[in-house]
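User: structure tokens for this one?
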Amino acid sequence: MKVRSEDGFGLIEVLIAIVMMNVGILALVAAFQSGSVALRRSSHISTASTIADAQMEGYRALQYVNIGFDTSQIAGLDNTYKCDAVLGGSCPNTITTCNSGGLSCANGTVPTYTCGTINQCLPSRTVNAGSSPPSPDHYSYRVDTYIVYTTPSTGNQLKLVTVVVRDGNNLSKIFARESSTFDATVSG
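Assistant:
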């Protein structure tokens, strides 16, 4: 009886095994990379939503007549702010001013008046690691706030406050958008 000789794998079999392992390893690396990107994006969206909620809560704490902007801040607004869909119309939109009560403003105008130094009075601000309060994840966010008057068929003029939180490094990316309507008869 003759014993068969098996000298081991040939060079071709070893190369095929290495290629198969590389494909598997590269697939794992790609999966980890895409998971990392998804986690980073969801973290930014979550933080932006928290920032938008905090901004809106500041408005909810104010009386109707105190909801407005510091007029000194209007001149520095850029086209990213002026071209948002909240303002509608042409781009760039002209930001108009109203009296402090805002009751004489026409539909679609943005009320502006000096109301102090609180964040709610700023139409646009940046939240990052160095701001007060700082960004929880130390990433840069831009918070744009819009106040537009609307008059529904009931006849009571309302203030529609919309907070838009954008990527501070790429203003075309919007992470969060939150709106709330304020009525003078309800909030004083």
